Amino acid sequence: MAVYVGGTGDANKFDDFEEGTFTPVVASIASPSYTVQAGRYTKMGHMVHAQAYILMASGGGLGAIFSIAGLPFTSTSADYKNGGGYVIYDNGFLDGSNATSALNSSTCWVPGNATNIRFYTRHDGDSIYANATAFGTGANNRYLVVQVQYEAA
To answer: For residues 43-64, b (16+ Cβ closer than 10 Å) or e, as one string?
Structure first.
């Protein structure tokens, strides 16, 4: 069924809506062991809103940029249309230090032509490498809940 917004022409026709689940997978973590891997999404037209919930029991950080792969749709490669979002909850997942500081906060980005979420430090925009996460320093049982919005290709 289509819904028309602001008129009955094709330009006003809304007929693309989808909800579903996906399985988020962490990248750059050696031998990840998951307790929970859950992803949900809503797609309206070209816009995708996704949430990933991960509880990792164990793993080891590798020396590459940490990311979550498995988004349900490939992002557009059009200029100036990259997606992003925010970390909803993180009990030390992204930070391998024991120090609590504003420098430890992070942000996330969905690059163009991709199905992954990359993580960066908020204070200077540097990449967060997996060996700098809690798993790179030997911690276990960490949660990460993240929400993103991006335009599908």
So the answer is: beeeebbbbbbbbbebbbbbee
Burial class (CB in 10 A: 0-12, 13-18, 19+), 145: middle
In angstroms, rounded to a whole number, what is the distance separating the alpha carbons of residues 152 and 76?
5
Is the separation of the CB atoms in 38 and 53 below 8 Å? yes
Strand duo 142-151 + 47-61: pairing = antiparallel
State pLDDT tens for residues 82-100: 999 999 998 888 876 655 5
| Beta carbons of 39 and 50 less than 8 angstroms apart | yes
d(CA 27, CA 50): 18
User: Which pTM was predicted?
Assistant: 0.88
Residue 82 structure tokens: 């990259």
Residues 99-113 have pLDDT tens digits of 555 556 889 999 999
